[in-house]
Amino acid sequence: MIKEFEFEVEGHTLRITNPEKLLWPEAEITKLDYIKYLIEMAPYLLSYAKDRLLTTIRYPNGIHGKSFYQKNLPAHAPAWVATHVWRDTNYILANDIPTLVWLGNQACLELHVSFNLYYQPKLPTELVFDLDPTDVDNFSLVLEVALRIKEVLDSLGLVSQPKTSGASGLQIYIPLEVRYTYEQTRSLNKFIAQYTADKYPQLVTVERLVKNRGTKLYFDYIQHGEGRTLPAPYSPRARKEGSVSTPVTWEEVRIGFSPRDFTIKNVKQRVDKMGDFFVLMTKQKAKQSIDQLLQFIK
């Protein structure tokens, strides 16, 4: 068993320790498998995560061991890792492949990023609806509600992109002109959430207390806010299947799927075959105005 080795990535020498350690035991995914995944998916992962404040969840002994959140750059980090200080925290910026490899070696299994770029701290690049099922085994409810929200967005002339959380939920991204504050996007998010809950009271709730939600889907309009995060597109999650937060098509939402369908083992093949559906956010950068909607809800 190899205990450690070094290799060079983009001019930086990185030491990989315990490459054969199982991080996702049930899926038989080792640390080396994970690092290979990060390298292969780097063009797609970095296209969104670059220049965003990173919060990671570390699992030094795999997904069944103890875990902890990491925001501050650790003292032992390489000097070349890009960072940005915001509110007294020195955040890592996942801006290149060497940084991803270094994070992988630290067993940072989940990569959560801010809604804004670090140099535009008050201006999110999109509006995001976070759909969180109370019954984690009822993903069909998530898909049904997502389609009904899409009808609302379509009626408003807004294009959108769905993405699995990689766990039990789904997020809907609406690209915006980067000039709206979090206060403005929060007000619209809350309005759409309440409208959806009022229109489909048997399906949707905005109730924050879990015990009061019953089996309804929670439309979390609060998660989209300053200093908050969601899993980056193509970030793995600490689930036994090695599932990945994956952009999907609205047609796939209509047909149906399980969030466990998309894993570290098959997402690269999916992107190779079907393409990266998150290009709406990262390459095409559809810039949409919500001026009229904000005026309407005042």
Automatic annotation (TrEMBL):
One Pfam family cited in the UniProt record for this chain: LigD_Prim-Pol
Name this polypeptide is given: Bifunctional non-homologous end joining protein LigD
InterPro entries linked: LigD_pol_dom, NHEJ_LigD
Residues annotated as domain DNA ligase D polymerase: 30-278
Record-linked PANTHER family: BIFUNCTIONAL NON-HOMOLOGOUS END JOINING PROTEIN LIGD
Top-rank lineage group of the source organism: Bacteria
Transmembrane segments: none
